[in-house]
């Protein structure tokens, strides 16, 4: 089974900061990775698919990169509405999918 | 509006059964793989099961194999999850999600682009 490890698990930052979250896969998954944002009490929201393609309607301050086993989600300038938990998901082992453990982004 | 609405959650005793439903609207339900994803209280997301467009293929996470059954009725635009032999560790919010194929050149990349609001399942005596 492919495991995903996100780091850090918790991140404290301020409005305007640039932040990066890393997702590492236990084996190569090419670019079959998605990123989701989840706010408390809400369903996850798709941000990025194919490792680096922004979903329609997602602000351009979000970006994704990587291939193989290491991936990053970057928020270029944090906005108040960006404080949430972020998850990566591998879709390489179709149709068996797994999520990372999540990264909680909190206001400093 | 493209929408998924779950129902059927509730409190059930260990060893009991529950059937979750997910009603789809605003898109051609029969054209998509569909999934169930769960989230235990205070925990992360866990993919639970997938079903192909015509119901001919079904896949499960190991922890629910033999206990949960995913199914769909394309005529009713509905997805289901029959949960038997429930355990305390099945306590979670259960989401249904649509698996979208995103094409980049000749390659297809999946992602879960539409999610329901979730339904809570509590397994406790």
List keywords for this structure.
heterodimer, A: 108 residues, mainly beta, seven-stranded mixed beta sheet, four-stranded antiparallel beta sheet, 49% strand, globular, B: 125 residues, 11 strands, 58% strand
What's this model, at a glance?
Chain A has 108 residues and is mostly beta strands. In chain A, 0% of the residues lie in helices and 49% in strands.
- Largest beta-sheet characterization of chain B: 7 strands, mixed
Mean pLDDT of chain A: 96
First and last CA, distance of chain A: 36 Å
Instruction: Kindly estimate the percentage of residues of chain A that lie in beta strands according to DSSP.
Output: over 45%
The greatest interface between two protein chains, and residues involved on each side, is: A-B, 26 and 25 residues
The count of helical stretches of chain A stands at 0
Helix content of chain B: under 10%
Coarse structural class of chain A: mainly beta
As residue ranges, the low-confidence spans of chain B are none
Elements of chain A, N to C (H/E): EEEEEEEEEEE
- The DSSP helix count of chain B reads 0
Q: Name the shape of chain A in a single word.
A: globular
SSE topology string of chain B:
EEEEEEEEEEE
Arithmetic mean pLDDT of chain B: 97
The amount of beta strand of chain B, in percent, is over 45%
Content-based structural category of chain B = mainly beta
Helix content of chain A: under 10%
Largest sheet of chain A: 7 strands, mixed
What is the rounded distance between the termini of chain B? 39 Å
Count of beta strands of chain A: 11
Count the strands of chain B?
11
